[in-house]
Amino acid sequence: MTERDYHSLLGVAKTASGDEIKEAYRKLAFELHPDKNSSPDAEERFKEISNAYSVLSDPGKRALYDGLDPERYDDPWEEAFRYPQEREAATRGSKSYEALRSAHREEVIKTTVTLIFFLILLNAIPSWVFGSWLIIFNAFFLLSIAICIYEWFAV
């Protein structure tokens, strides 16, 4: 990116409201859209203002951006999801990854067996004891078992 300060990129003040930011973004997006503007740097500028708008239009991201310097700001939501995936991809195929995967499957199997045990135990009790709650309990246990089975195959 050529310019990092999102406020000056959109041409708004730091105290601008959400409507002012939206209006400035729409004006710039219309001017810089690659389909409308044949300038060689139009696409890059369009991406920059789109990124600036995505940060400044979201109240949580904007508060974080305004609290930090523009140079220190990095989108923490992207990083939070990207790092575990990159780490898993880097360790996939190693012995430690296979050991972790095996241990995770064992835990999932133990959890599934425990849930099935309680499901059977719950249905052994007469239905008049729980009344209509029995349906809710059964649904909860069946959903939990389905999640465990999904986890077993996902790893």
Question: In words, what does this structure look like?
Answer:
The protein is mainly alpha-helical and 155 residues long. It has 2 domains: 6-78, DnaJ domain (Helix Hairpins), CATH 1.10.287.110; 94-154. It is built from 8 helices and no strands. The protein has helices spanning 6-10, 18-32, 42-57, 59-67, 76-91, 95-124, 127-130, 133-154. Helix 2 packs antiparallel against helix 3 (42-57). The radius of gyration is 26 Å and the shape is elongated. The relative contact order is 0.07. The model has no long low-confidence stretch (mean pLDDT 79).
User: What is the distance, rounded to the nearest whole angstrom, between the alpha carbons of the first and last residues?
Assistant: 37 Å
What's the alpha carbon Rg, rounded to whole Å?
A: 26 Å
Structural class: mainly alpha
**CATH hierarchy, class of the largest domain:** Mainly Alpha
Instruction: Report low-confidence residues grouped into runs of 5 or more.
Output: none
Secondary-structure element order, N to C: HHHHHHHH
Strand proportion, as a percent range, falls in under 5%
Indicate the percent of residues in helices: over 70%
At a glance:
This protein is mainly α. The protein has 2 domains: 6-78, Orthogonal Bundle (Helix Hairpins), CATH 1.10.287; 94-154.
Question: Which helices and strands appear, and what pairs or packs with what?
Answer:
Blueprint: H1 6-10, H2 18-32, H3 42-57, H4 59-67, H5 76-91, H6 95-124, H7 127-130, H8 133-154
